[in-house]
Amino acid sequence: MLPSSTWLDLRLLRSPDCNPVLEEHFRPLSSIKDSSYPQIVMFIGKKAKTLHLADIFSVRNTLDHNKIHLNNVTGYNESQSPILIADCEMHHMSRWKKAVARTRLGETEHHSLRWCSIDSNSVPTLVYSQLVLPFSTLACFFASDFGGTRKVASILASWLIVMSNRVSKQPISVNSKILIVVEWDEISTFDEKLTTIAFMQQLRQETDKRSSSLMQKSKDLLSDNDFNELLRGQFGDIRVVPLLRINEGNVGIRSKQVDRLRTRILQESQDVQSLRISARMAFSTQHLKSLFHSACIHFAKDIVTPFEFIKAARIENSIPGDFHLHLATLMKLSKPPFLMVFVAPVIASALALDAYPPNMHSRCTLEVVYNDLRLH
Q: End-to-end distance of the chain based on CA atoms, in angstroms?
């Protein structure tokens, strides 16, 4: 395993307070061309995930690293849209390891988790759902590493409930997709549609458990419409796909199945990437570095308010605090007949040009700018 592939880690600072920190490593993205538009695919699991990751994409990380590694898939390095695998084992972390008090300039940075308790076992899943997933096109869960699909459903249900109160400004069309990979003995007996339906029933049951506890034991559960809206608001799609279980007599057949799964993963990821390109929410490597760093800073401070890509992209072009005074002066200098036919269109045009320069991410930026102005 290349040491430079470590991307995110959870640590305790070697300080009197032993503050928990999110350790961000910059090296994994430094080898990617700034002009490219990478696709990040999450692989979440443990032993089976490690084995399948090596089979599918020839990515070999050590087992039990308990971090998130970011690996460039060989063969896609020079592509305009390289494939990056986020190898996620942070949820298997049994204890917080100590970190050095100082970081290496330009290589790592510690983000103090102000809201965090070191006794909390939910921190890794929050890193997955609130920090890594929004930047990823696809998340692959390996069900055998979780004891089956029920536990995966429980994890996704917790993500749904946590994210249900977080209103995002992103178009729902750019949401990440979810693939649950199950090991199967006989591929010919596998029905993706029926297996996915069965999983969605498990997800509904687990979501109902959590929503009822949040509503203080209310008898009112989520309606079918509410549940579907919750899904649409957080995930692009959820599918259960098979991979032939390894045994001595099926090496050749399994190799074909691995090829099919690789093709499926690449296609699902590319579908999301295409939607993000259409919505202008696909980030170049240069933007990805900056925005992900800003997301880490936000995550360390606040896990209630969602990270807003558009506001982060406007940090260097923020709205002046006295901007509303200039607007008021312009309106006072104009006679009533001209307010609607001249002044209003000029202001609207200026806001649109400021909020939506060439190649900006999405037209919803205008809404963000307008809301900012209302606060002043």
A: 51
- Taking CA atoms, 83 is separated from 41, 155, 256, in Å, by 7, 25, 21
SS3 labels along the chain: CCHHHEEEEEEEECCCCCCEEEEEECHHHHCCCCCCCCEEEEEECCHHHHHHHHHHHCCCCCCCCCCEEEEECCCCCCCCCCEEEEEECHHHCCCCEEECCCCCCCCEEEEECCCCCCCCCCHHHHHHHHHHHHHCCEEEEEHHHHCCHHHHHHHHHHHHHHHHCCCCCCCHHHCCEEEEEEEECCHHHCCHHHHHHHHHHHHHHHHHHHHHHHCCCCCCCCCHHHHHHHHHHHCCEEEEEEEECCCCCCHHHHHHHHHHHHHHHHHHHHHHHHHHHHCCCCCCHHHHHHHHHHHHHHHHHCCCCCCCHHHHHCHHHCCCCCHHHHHHHHHHCCCHHHHHHHHHHHHHHHHHHHHCCCCCCCCCHHHHHHHHHHHC
CB 53, CB 87: distance < 8 Å: yes
pTM for this one? 0.83
146 phi and psi angles, rounded to 5 deg: -115, 10
CB atoms within 10 A of CB 259: 12
166: left (phi over 0), alpha (psi -120 to 50) or beta: beta
What pLDDT is attached to residue 337? 79
Name the pLDDT band for 258 (thresholds 50, 70, 90): very high
Give the pLDDT confidence score for residue 210 in this predicted structure.
83
User: 54-112, pLDDT tens digit by residue?
Assistant: 999 999 888 789 999 999 998 887 789 999 999 999 998 878 787 765 666 678 999 99
The tokens describing 239, both together, are 């599918």
- Using an 8 Å Cβ cutoff, are 85 and 53 in contact? yes
Question: pLDDT tens-digit profile of 198-245?
Answer: 999 999 999 998 876 555 444 567 788 889 988 998 999 999 999 988
